[in-house]
Amino acid sequence: MIQIETVTLGPLETNAYLLSDPAAKRAVVIDPGMNPKALLRRIADLEVEAILLTHAHFDHIGGVDEVRRLKGCPVYLHDAEADWLTDAKKNGSARWPELGGPIATEPAEYALDEGQTLTLLGQTIRVFHTPGHSPGSVSFLMGEHLFSGDVLFRLGVGRTDLYGGSENALLDSIQDKLFALDDEVKVYPGHGPRTTIGYERDNNPYV
C-alpha cells in the first residue's frame, strides 16, 4: 500500500510529496522544495528511488541536491527545462533574491516526456507534458492520484507571466489532458489544498 504525504516547504509554502511503501522502506519524492529539513528528517530511514520534478522553478527544486546527496537517487525532469537547474535566471531564483538567493543544482539524470511511463515503488506512473506555467511542466498520474505541479490548483491555475509561460498552452494542457481524466482523480497541486478533477471541471473559474 503506497502512502502519500504532503510536506510543505520554503517561503512560498511549496508542497513536496512523499510517496512511500512503509513495508519496503522505499520512497519517491516529488518536488523537494526550499528549506527541506522536515523532508530530510522524514526520509532518513527510507531508500529513495527517485526525485520527480513537475518543473524546475526555484521553489520546487531548492532541496534537490540535499535529497540527492543524502540518498544517492536520480532526478527526473522534462528536457525543455534541462538547463534550468543550473540557471538561476531561468529557474526564477535570481528574480527574488530576498527569498533565499540564486539556486543552482546539478543536472537531472533522466529526461521526462509526454506519454512516458515510469515504474517506481512497484507502481506505474504516467507522465503528461502539461506546458503553460513553464515549458517543461509535467503532471504525474499514479492510479487515481494526479500530481499537477503549478498547472492546476483548487479553484485556480498556474501563473503564466514567468519565463517561458503561455496562457494558451496552460489552458490547452488542462482542458485536453487533465480534464480528460476521470472525475474521481485526486489532484495534488504544487501549492494549497488537494482537489479533484471533477470539482475543478465544474467549478474552476479560470478554465
TrEMBL record:
Key words, A-Z: Hydrolase, Metal-binding, Zinc
Signal peptide from the UniProt entry: none
A GO molecular-function annotation: metal ion binding
One Pfam family here: Lactamase_B
Domain Metallo-beta-lactamase: 13-191
Catalyzed chemical reaction(s): 3',5'-cyclic UMP + H2O = UMP + H(+); 3',5'-cyclic CMP + H2O = CMP + H(+)
Cofactors (names): Zn(2+)
Cited function: Counteracts the endogenous Pycsar antiviral defense system. Phosphodiesterase that enables metal-dependent hydrolysis of host cyclic nucleotide Pycsar defense signals such as cCMP and cUMP.
Descriptive protein name: MBL fold metallo-hydrolase
Natural source organism: Paenibacillus aurantius
